[in-house]
Amino acid sequence: MTFTRRHVLGLGAALAGASMFRGVPALAQGEPIKVGVLHSLSGTMAISETTLKDVMLMLIEAQNAKGGLLGRPLEAVVVDPASDWPLFAEKARELITGGCAATFGCWTSVSRKSVLPVFEELNSILFYPVQYEGEESQRNVFYTGAAPNQQAIPAVDYLMEVEGVERWVLAGTDYVYPRTTNRILEAYLQAKGVAPEDILINYTPFGHSDWQTIVSDIRRFGGEGKRTAVVSTINGDANVPFYRELANQGVAATDIPVVAFSVGEEELAGIDTGPLVGHLAAWNYFMSVDTPENRAFIEQWHAFTGDTKRVTNDPMEAHYIGFNMWVKAVEAAGTTDADAVIDAMIGVAVPNLTGGYSAMMPNHHITKPVLVGEIQDDGQFAVVWETAGLVPGDAWSDHLEGSKDLMSDWQAPMNCGNFNVVSGQCGGA
Amino acid sequence: MAHHARTPIRLARLVLLALTLVLAPATLTAPTPAAAQAAQEEVATILAGFTRGQFPATLAAIDALAASGHPHAAEILTALSDRRLVVEAAGRRVLWKDAGGAYYDALTGAPVAAPGATTDVRVSNAVRRAVQTAMASLTLRAPSPATRIEAAAAILRARDLSQRDALAAARAEETDPNVQRAFDDTLAGLAIADTGAAEADRLAAIARLAERGDASARALLLGLPADAPEALREAASAAIAAIDRRLAMQAHVQNIFFGLSLGSVLLLAAIGLAITFGVMGVINMAHGEMVMIGAYATFVVQELMRTFAPGLLDLSLLVALPLAFLSAGLVGVALERLVIRHLYGRPLETLLATWGVSLILQQAVRSLFGPTNREVMNPSFMSGSLELFGIALTWSRVWIIVFALAVFLALLVAMKATSFGLRMRAVVQNRRMAASMGIRTPWIDALTFGLGSGIAGVAGVALSQIDNVSPNLGQSYIIDSFLVVVFGGVGSLWGAFVAALSLGVANKLVEPLAGAVLAKIVILVAVILFIQKRPRGLFALEGRAVES
């Protein structure tokens, strides 16, 4: 049965592919709607972003197999910004002026910041699929990844309530996402009564590979009697040597658990996870979540890539949600015109892959469940905890001075991304 | 958490449990029907705690189950901690799965042939700790000494005072000196935490921990309740101060080891460049990619051996060494023949061309192996750590230090004691003279470049053990490699050696004070200032070769 279903899917995919290339659409007629895909296919970030490019191609292909959008076929326009931040802005301009109705892309915050002015100037739409530090809400951007209150804060709550953690190591790579997240977490922990000497903050350069000193510091800090956990915002490539050093120095999850915000199924693919069982990650999606939607998604992904070993991860789900939201909004607006779609987006709800519905909110963030998963020896995560319901993404953290008075609402009459509720004015603090 | 609330009744139950386990065949096979019925009902109630899907209920069920005397308690708890305990959706029966995947009913222990749909009982680290503590009472007399030590450690971690009498009884019968020491430590730790114990006992316990003098002893001493008598608190703080002095000493020694280990990684990465850049003067920006090729060669060798010779997987690194040397060396020779030889004497163009080659190689590997990290396994002799005088030295680092030294020595021998080395030095020192002596200088150039690249490939085998095997692997080492060669003195192998180790140690001594980011900056600035003062580095070459 599996075989036949996959077969049919494959056939559909082939049909769609053929229709795209020949320009004689079998199912959808008319001028194609262009969709921009702005992910690095070379350079340092290729490791994470290439997968997102593939997932966009898969989603677009599947949509075409269903008859396209507004009766027109979709056409993916893929560019390679090569992990080069200024090049992101150039490529974004190229996509928008080339007629793309919406763009799905970016991974690092600095690449997003680099394209923001372009999307604003040319009034187009960007879907940003990665968990980030918040403190931003822009009219032309829809944030489908987690804001800090949809990942970091619930994870810390879990450690405090279920694991009884009293001492905290906040370890991160030295750039904007870990710095802002740790600032929020530090304020949050102190508000919860954690003493400043029970918080150890530690930054390392990108691609740091020598973790001996830091892991032995963590061992020392955690060996002083109080239950200790590490909250890791360590980025991408630095994680493998970090976890290897933890395992080699014998830091077990039962002694000092590590909860990571940037380690997913894809990152674990490069490590033997045997010694890591019990370490944690917080996301809004895990490949192991057993729902009919997720099973179908994984099957579709395996059929599309032709590789049954490929894993799925959280940013992929974010693109799945974002793409389906955009399709729904375009259908509701009856046009791909940016202003109409931006207005139609708010309130759109589509199924996510964990068994619920995610909705776009007026602040351009979405509602998501928060899951805490434990690393298993097969490189997957087993869910150990989840929030009771969906958590709405908060653009401006409630735990930071200068940010807690701000709110964002892109509906009329407010139409403001940083409205100060104290001064009653749009435009920040 | 539930194990804080112990009662004398629980203790009695545990002792009973220990007895029943010893006498299990006699008492459990032939109970009276009514008693058996009651016991079953009690266990059924306890097991229901696992079906709630809530951690507090699970934790309570663990303690109750360990105390219940249920004959399958140990199997159920082990299964729980390994995530093999499941709940049948229909009927809410609790089952455990053995390693082979067969199911058993937790209540009766009877095999279950084909269970319906099941869900796993969720496990958190708190649950695993509770299982360890509960199991400890069952395993204090286990046959394996390691298990007994683990049991004592689990009791100590949980500060489980209710286990003290059982532990003391087990200690009286213990014969293994290592286990005796572990039991004594645990008893001392418990005595400190026990406000009901006699002051003299607690003082003795403090003295014992002070003598042990390691970080966990310090943690136990810190655990002394704040309302303890004055004498105790003074003794404890004196002991802590003594331990702190000792730990500070250890930390220094450890930092130096970390530094040597970082230095040997730098040496490995830079030593090939010391030949291509140092000896030949080629600014080879593709040097890092040679390291990457070596790492991917290791990956390929491991994949092949996993398929064809899984029993020999621990030897995969040895097999990978020559292959990594050859593959990176061949790429190096090809690079020299095709690109670099046309650019001798034009450093800027060499720099740009080799940088282009490095991008091509990266993208080629990305297309061939995919952009994501590849898993390279650590052989068993490179996993874990070696505890030496309270300092944890990880095996992978120890081996890399040894390996870096071996590669360095081998290279020295090749340069000084072989005829190829002689020709190579001749060509570098005076090309025209060497040519007139009948040495084929272009051939020697290619081989020298190949040697440098091959050594970089060999470094890749070692780096695959501690870093990501990804197309970006080489980029993270190229800057450091140039830094080492320039700092050490261009053209000097010994210079590279001293430079790598001193940069490594300096970095690791600064890191605890300034943090990893600042440490890198401080070192970089220091090297720049040093180069201003001595532009030719630590070991400057003298003589005519330098002037030309």
Describe the protein.
The complex is a heterodimer of chains A (429) and B (548). Chain A is of the alpha/beta class and 429 residues long. Chain A is 37% helix and 19% strand. Chain A has a 7-stranded mixed sheet, with helices on both faces. A 5-stranded parallel sheet of chain A has the order 2-1-3-4-5, sandwiched between helices. The longest helix of chain A has 21 residues, at 2-22. Chain A is globular, with a radius of gyration of 22 Å. The termini of chain A are far apart. The model of chain A is unreliable at 1-6 and 8-26 (pLDDT under 50). Chain B has helices spanning 8-22, 24-28, 33-48, 55-68, 73-81, 125-139, 145-158, 164-173, 177-193, 199-212, 215-222, 230-279, 287-308, 316-338, 347-369, 395-417, 419-429, 431-436, 441-463, 475-488, 493-514, 516-533, 544-547; strands at residues 85-88, 94-97, 103-105, 111-112, 118-120, 385-388, 391-394. In chain B, the strands form 2 sheets. A 5-stranded antiparallel sheet of chain B has the order 4-3-2-1-5. Chain B has 548 residues and is mainly alpha-helical.
CATH architectural name of the largest domain in chain A: 3-Layer(aba) Sandwich
CATH domain class name of the largest domain in chain B? Mainly Alpha
- Whole-number total of structural domains of chain A: 2
Shape of chain A: globular
Q: Which spans of chain A have pLDDT < 50 for at least 5 consecutive residues?
A: 1-6, 8-26
Helix content of chain B: 55-70%
**Biggest sheet: strand arrangement of chain B:** 4-3-2-1-5
Helix content of chain A: 25-40%
CATH topology of the largest domain in chain B: ABC transporter involved in vitamin B12 uptake, BtuC
What average pLDDT do the residues of chain B reach?
Answer: 84
Proportion of residues in extended strands of chain A: 15-25%
* Helix count from the secondary structure assignment of chain B: 23
Radius of gyration of chain A: 22 Å
The quaternary structure here is heterodimer
CATH structural fold name of the largest domain in chain A: Rossmann fold
Question: What's the gyration radius of chain B in Å?
Answer: 32 Å
Mean pLDDT of chain A, nearest integer?
A: 89
Sheet with the most strands, sense and barrel status of chain A? 7 strands, mixed
